[in-house]
Amino acid sequence: MAPRKAVNKGKKKQTTGGSSSRVNFDATRFLGPLQFALFRDLAKRTIWGENVYRLTRTGDFERFTEMIEERGWVDLARPADAINFDLVREFYANAMPLDDEDPVTFKTMVRGREIRFDRDSINDFLGQPSQLPPDTYCAFTMSVAQGNWDVAALTQSLLRPGHQLIWNTQKTRPVRAKKDDLTIYSQLLLHFTLHNVMPRSHTSDGTMKALQFMYYMQNNLEIDIARVIASEMRDMVVTGLHTTKMKNNAALGFPGLIMGLIYEQTRMTFPPEINLTLKEFDDEEARRVCKYRHTTIFIDPAGGQSSAPPPTFPNTFPSTGYPPMDSTTFHNMVTYNWDLHDAGFRAMQAVHQSIYNTQVLQPVMSPDQFRSYVQWPEDRPFIPGGGSSSGAGTNVGGGTDTDIDDDTTLREMMNRNPVGNRDGNNNEDIEMDDEEEATASGSDDE
């Protein structure tokens, strides 16, 4: 038997250390390396699942079931229950803005397919429970923006007799209520709110925003549930990028809703791996979770026991010095700011286009054409109790369309300029290709 040949190790190809450290990502799943890096970071964060509410119409909590059905929130209360963690994390990772300063576009990508989670998309998915126009805020959203809580109404509607809201250390504003201070029915509303509407893993108390939502829900007041959820999802997307009320390691919510949105908009076949099955919440579970853990007995100074203590804190929110803001004024104020942003965007776009035109020898707008194109809002809306400029009371910032079609109108206005190009040719239009056009126009979709 012949001896084995010696192996020439000197000719073996050596691998470089740099190749193993190079970051590779799947372009069919992620918009870029930043999104892939975020996807890996999201593996450290908990996914906070909704509950699937299946309470009977004849049990102790029949009013809850009736309320869900009357509001058209059945799909919200009973989301898809089979959850794949990778799909949920892809959803949140690709929803991150490409630049830290960019706004959330309410669009993301899962397995190469675009998914929208704006107010209209969520409202359509839930069966259009809200019939409000897309640019109109509901009563609940306006009340949260104003932050002028009706403490007496919240206390009477949600809390057990004799129990109070918890105030800040300066005793100037309420901040939350303990779960055990809520009535049994209010505890069920809190449970639903913190799992399916405003996901929070801390369920032993409710913030003022959660309590306000419960109050509006219980008293059949106006709530645009799709806008509330879209706002919550946006805050989760920017957690860690911008300052929000959520912690940087806050749990990722709405996995059932996300699985439903993915399937509704793509009809894709899901991976076979199921990492979580959402918990069913029936009457038995409701009785186990919603109960009083402590019995509070108040001592009457005159002797004996009393079911209600004297109020320790004021029962009204301190006055801000301004009268309550009606819906029209609130709408004018918000849309005026939108108009300012739109005008600023058009101005930046026009400046960029002008700089580009000087490079390709196209005409530049005159000052009058520039002012006509930007259409900067002139007057501020009137705010009761606050300052405003001339034209007070006018519905400035009404959100009306100016019929300006970004690139097309901008280039047409420039080409009408009688001033010739540098090379002596008048209005010689040089076409952009599609990629350059898209770069020049930008996008302001929400």
From TrEMBL:
Where in this protein does the record put region Disordered?
A: 1-21, 380-446
Q: Which InterPro entries match?
A: Transposase_32_dom
The residue ranges of the Putative plant transposon protein domain are 69-262
Gly residues bias locations: 384-400
Please note every region of biased composition (Basic residues). 1-14
Composition bias, kind Acidic residues: at what positions? 426-446
The protein's name is Putative plant transposon protein domain-containing protein
Organism ancestry: Eukaryota, Viridiplantae, Streptophyta, Embryophyta, Tracheophyta
